[in-house]
Amino acid sequence: AQSVSQHNHHVILSEAASLELGCNYSYGGTVNLFWYVQYPGQHLQLLLKYFSGDPLVKGIKGFEAEFIKSKFSFNLRKPSVQWSDTAEYFCAVNGDSSYKLIFGSGTRLLVRP
Amino acid sequence: DAGVTQSPTHLIKTRGQQVTLRCSPKSGHDTVSWYQQALGQGPQFIFQYYEEEERQRGNFPDRFSGHQFPNYSSELNVNALLLGDSALYLCASRRTSGYNEQFFGPGTRLTVL
Prior knowledge:
The complex is a heterodimer of chains A (113) and B (113).
Chain A: E1 3-5, E2 10-14, E3 19-21, E4 24-26, E5 31-38, E6 45-50, E7 56-58, E8 64-68, E9 73-78, E10 87-95, E11 102-103, E12 107-112
Chain B: E1 5-7, E2 10-13, E3 19-24, E4 31-37, E5 44-50, E6 53-57, E7 64-68, E8 74-78, E9 87-94, E10 103-104, E11 108-112
Parallel strand pairs in B: 2-11
Antiparallel strand pairs in B: 1-3, 3-8, 4-5, 4-9, 5-6, 7-8, 9-10, 9-11
């Protein structure tokens, strides 16, 4: 079955710390990969996406993610987090032949000032 | 440029009742998807509409139905409400052509008592 796993449900960091959130997927075939962020009281926003090409993709607000096909992973990284990065982060996948996005259960990030 | 809008923002119903949620897609978008986000979970795909027809459906019972209008706006209907239908219902829109990046609305919070 198609699925997305986010193993870190809650992460607490201090400002300036580095961030890496794990995402693994199970999907047969070509995939498109996404990271969405939901800031407190706001709607889901796209952070970055991977469709093809360079497996290292850069998104907004200094975030980046690396697609490692052999590991079925698409981990999100940021070298130095800020208090304003406090939010819930969702990894999602869909296949070229499918219209639906399959989401992970999310990771709540709290950045302490 | 207005993004995806949804109405109402909050709704309280009792078991057995029926509910209709509404969505207006982002300008220029012709495809609308609906997702259910239970507390502490990632969004789950309900269905997608394009050209006024349901194009793909997730693992939801027939109590969940939808409609798309000629102006691309959409409705989600849920009949015979159950307590477990309490969730945030998200609408997402995209252009059918090109990369399938979806933009999400703020959601409708449905509480079933």
